[in-house]
Design a protein that fits this description.
The protein has helices spanning about 10-25, 30-45, 55-65, 85-95, 115-125, 130-135, 150-155, 160-170, 195-205, 235-240, 255-265, 265-280, 290-300, 320-325, 330-340, 350-355, and strands spanning about 70-75, 80-85, 105-110, 130, 135-140, 145-150, 175-180, 185-190, 210, 220-225, 225-235, 250-255. It is an alpha+beta fold.
Length: about 375
């Protein structure tokens, strides 16, 4: 077998294989052996024409999913951080939820980073709100202002300077006079306000972002395979990738929509595969990755992440009967009749509904009997 035998592979695989050969500078003997292995794996991965792959993938993922647990688990070394795993996480992934119940990031640092560096980065990225450094927040009705007392110990622990706190509050509240006091800060509205509006100002002020990355509520430093990594509760993927000492090539988040926004739909497709595979594997179950790959391909085929459900893949099928069969039957039939839609009966579901032979397996072709001529 020679390198020319790559012509048996699809064009994209041929290009990628040739690039890999150049990258690793393989000898002719190594190329010959690698090509044979690649073609063998490719041929083994092929399936029969007419095979109902969607049904097989659905059964292969759903049957083990019935054995998954419903619990949440603690991140290693942090009893206060819980992450969603098991069946709820699998539902989250395939429902393409905009924000996961427990968004987390796993932050890898650049090679050679010490524990001290990891702790510094963890402290720097953790979001600090005014409520985290305030000891008291009172409303002064006489002067119609909000007075916030700060905790000096909390300020030191979170490395917050009074000037930075005042600057953040001034940016957040344009129509409020923000003044620094010896033991805190005062917020006085420029216009006359009611007591209710002062109460709203107080709660908004306490929720004001002072420093760190927005959304990153907690950080935990743990050691893994001789390197220090940071696990977070909360996610801000775009900002963490440009943070000092962070390795952007390995850092990941479990928020798939955030990955799509920052890195594109191909990265989101890979994230769906990885997240679903890890979720299943963590439960001690074995699902072939190709079933998950098929689902992730369908979810991202048109450049956006779509859920497996009535508002995603199932609700966008071309067949009226297939859409009506899934959920909201009357709505789909009514819309189709108003829009004068025609169902070509090209898929499996609609043919089952009207008791016709389905276009799968042996139903994909017709047989014609030609008697022998005398």
């Amino acid at each position: 077998m020679t390198i020319e035998d790559l012509k048996d592979l699809p064009p994209k695989m041929q290009e990628e294989t040739k690039e890999a050969f150049k990258l690793f500078k393989l000898t002719d003997a190594q190329k010959k052996k690698a090509t044979a292995n690649i073609i063998a794996v490719y041929k083994k991965s092929m399936f029969e024409a007419g095979e109902a792959m969607g049904i097989i993938a659905a059964q292969s993922i759903s049957e083990p999913a019935t054995q998954m647990t419903m619990r949440t688990y603690h991140v290693a070394g942090a009893a206060q951080i819980e992450v969603t795993l098991g069946l709820p996480r699998l539902v989250e992934i395939f429902d393409a939820r905009r924000i996961p119940k427990t968004p987390t990031m796993t932050i890898y640092l650049k090679k050679g980073a010490s524990k001290e560096t990891a702790k510094e980065v963890a402290a720097e990225i953790r979001e600090v709100k005014l409520t985290n450094i305030a000891s008291a927040a009172n409303i002064n009705l006489l002067n119609s202002q909000v007075e916030v007392d700060t905790d000096s110990k909390a300020m030191r622990e979170n490395n917050v300077k009074p000037s930075a706190m005042v600057t953040a509050l001034k940016e957040a509240f344009k129509n409020v006079d923000v003044k620094q006091r010896a033991d805190g800060v005062t917020l006085k509205p420029k216009a006359e306000v009611t007591v209710k509006e002062l109460q709203k100002l107080r709660s908004k002020a306490l929720d004001t972002h002072i420093k760190g990355l927005k959304g990153v509520a907690q950080t935990v430093v743990v050691q893994k395979d001789d390197e220090w990594i940071i696990t977070t509760l909360g996610s801000n993927f775009a900002k963490i990738l440009v943070t000092d000492h962070v390795n952007p090539d390995k850092t990941v988040t479990n928020n798939i929509h955030e990955i799509a926004k920052v890195l594109g739909v191909e990265a989101a497709r890979m994230a769906i595969i990885n997240e679903a595979s890890h979720t299943v594997r963590d439960q001690g179950l074995d699902v072939d990755v190709r079933h998950i790959m098929l689902v992730s391909d369908i979810m991202t085929v048109d450049g956006e992440i779509r859920a497996i459900g009535r508002y995603g893949i199932s609700g966008m099928k071309g067949s009226v009967l297939a859409r009506a069969n899934f959920e909201e039957t009357i709505k789909h039939l009514t819309k189709a009749s108003v829009a004068n839609e025609v169902d070509r009966l090209e898929s499996i579901v609609e043919n089952v509904m009207i008791n016709q032979v389905v276009p799968a397996g042996t139903g994909m072709f017709d047989l014609v009997f030609r008697p022998k001529k005398k």
